[in-house]
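Batch job 17 of 40 flagged for manual review because the log was empty.
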Amino acid sequence: MRSTGFTVRTGRRVAVVLMATVMAGVGTAHPRTHVDALATTPANIPTGQWFADDEWGDDDSDEDEDSSSQDGTWKADKDLGSLFTIAKQYGAQNAWGTSGSDNRKILGTGVDVAVIDTGVAPVAGLEDPTRVVNGPDLSFESQSPNTRHLDGYGHGTHMSAIIAGRDADIPAGGEDDAKHFAGVAPGARIVNLKVGTADGAADVSQVIAAIDWAVQHRNSGGLNIRVINLSYGTRSTQSYTIDPLAHAVENAWRHGIVVVTAAGNNGPGTALSMPAADPYVIAVGAVDHVGTDTSDDDRVSDFTNTGTPIRRPDLLAPGKSVVSLRTPGSYADRSHPEGLVTGDRHQRFFRGSGTSQAAAVVSGAVALLLQQRPKLNPDQVKRLLTSTADRLKSSLDPAQGRGVLDIKGALEASTPSALWSRQTWIPSTGLGTLEASRGDNQVVDPLNGTVLTGEVDALGQPWDARSWSAASSAGEAWSGGTWNARSWSGADWTGSSWTARSWSSAEWTARSWSGVDWSARSWSDAVWTSSGWTSLDLLARSWSQEAWASRAWHGDTWAASDVW
């Protein structure tokens, strides 16, 4: 089967960075020398930014023009980056036509996917209040009801739609109709765990808190969280064996949640980001279709982090020029109009490339597998996906890991035994530092320019790695709405959100890490309407670190605060 990608056309590029890698012998006992190397060589993890820089509008194979050439209207079945084409070519549509153990069509039904990202906007295809549930909003925008849970950047919506988008007017059995939009697992449910602001800013502590919440509440209030999608990565400067972010994802894995991460978009010669650097999770790179509908010439995308001989992406998935749902008026939408799809008369769609998108495709595939075989543990899921992946025909590039995602092959393969699938890497203790996990990027307080550094979390609370690690492992890191001894969220579900269920909010009190009272701040007056965002003034409320490396874009430079 073949795949697509998420980068931008030369001359109109914005980057999404996420890292993944594949390791020889996945699911078996591993050579001790490799385990030791993974545990002792933090140099494998370069310093850099956390949230993936996304490339929007990447269309260097002219998919826009080709798919709308007939009558000026964009046609999903003519575009190699459309979800229709991806679902068809990589086997999702085949799954939709079969039934699982529950005698229902395999659409990911009954499986919840926690998307830890920049939020979700209720655009068409994600507006069904029964199919998007809001967990706590842990971002700096949680203090304003106008921005709470909602996606001001455009990234979380893009990922969620790839995973489980579904047009409201799709009849049962009509998911494979090119006239409709459907994600890889259109029956799955999204659990929205917002950590990033409208400029993509978030601290690693916010991501860790979100993972802990997903673990602790995986079966709360009717939830069934079996997958975490992390289209995110840090450039940690410490080994995964002590990194707290690695410990958090491993804890989710041990509690039966499959964690899918992106490899990163810094290209050849770059190690995988954290937590993709952790060998337990599924690290995903992007495959490039190079503008043809055959897999014979497919290759590893030029933006995928190739990793090292010790840790490479586990597999590749479509990540090149993927067409997913647009968030009107969002940061990405306003900053990168080249992401709009030519011939899309309703302007619903947005095009982008990156291992972020590739990870989302795999998360959807995992949801399909878990509906088909709900008793699979995460190690078995990983082995199924890697053992059935298709090797590139035109390349021996080791960055392909075990090969390209083949959903049909995975669904048709026999269930590997739990013993044969069991991974035996050194586990992470989580006793490293938050600062090393951040790498060289931190958030900055827009009121006084103070950078968040050292062993404090995003609310300025001191970090005790040993205490947190024990609580996280026990599934007790949260107590009601309290995490790391500070109130981050309300303690109960409410019905106050645009979704049917929502985790209640809490007012942040006391001082932030910069010494400014949270209650003294002016929060956003942005408003989401049925047609998109209004008054989304990023300049007045940016939390991104200013000192990120700039990138070339369309002959100019753009600040790497364009994260996610």
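Reviewer: the log was empty due to a logging misconfiguration, but the result itself is present. Confidence is low (pLDDT under 50) at residues 1-53, 546-564. Unflagging and moving on to job 18.
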